[in-house]
Amino acid sequence: KNLVAMMGGDIQIESEYGKGTRFLITLTLNKCGAPPALPGKKDPLPETFPGLRILMAEDNEINRQIAVEMLGLLGAEVETAENGRAAVDAVLSHPPLYYDMVFMDIQMPVMNGYELCKEIKADIDLCHIPVIFLTAKNDLESKINGLKIGAEAYVEKPFSFNYLKTQIL
Questions:
Q1: Is 20 left (phi over 0), alpha (psi -120 to 50) or beta?
Q2: Cβ neighbours of residue 109 under 8 Å, at least 6 residues apart?
Q3: Element housing 156 (H / E)
Q4: Which of 66, 72, 111, 137 could form a disulfide with 85 if both were Cys (CB 3.0 to 4.6 A apart)?
């Protein structure tokens, strides 16, 4: 608890007799090489994200181009994959820390977004990569399923430039 507190984090404990104990630890960590954050001091939101490397998995070419253009305006380097299998191949063909995040559609041929997310989150070298769904599926069950399998965010199409930007943070 002291270590978490010294790192500016929070720890919560839930325990139920006969079932077990759950520890929830929340920490704000900086990416390697980033300047350290000072406790209690919040930096203003960045306008762009230069050097951020994103993989965009989207089967619809027009949707893919729009998302790539928006992310490019934010300074991100974007690589694309036209289906889930191509995205897995792209992630596996690079070193573990190559991609900073993966944006993906849910409904794709060959391998859908849920399967792609599960494969990324199941790999010990890749599970750190944030996964964000960009999808037209706007029902509650789809959102819950996406978040249950490890996605960090669920963005419904159509989305605004500013909303997309907030999901990168």
A1: left
A2: 59, 83
A3: strand 153-156
A4: 111
**For the chain, what is the total number of helices (H) and then of strands (E)?**
6, 7
pLDDT tens for residues 59-104?
999 989 988 998 888 889 999 999 999 999 999 999 988 999 999 9
Spatial contact of 145 and 114, defined as CB atoms under 8 Å apart = yes
117 pLDDT above the threshold of 70: yes
Q: What is the average pLDDT score of the chain?
A: 84
pLDDT above 70 for 24: yes
Tokens of 51: 């050097």
Closest CA to 56 of 12, 145, 116: 116
pTM summary value: 0.69
Q: What average pLDDT does this structure show over 12-37?
A: 76
Cα 114 to its chain centre, rounded Å, is 13
Contact 135, 107 (CB under 8 A): yes
Which SS3 state, helix, strand or coil, does residue 132 take? strand
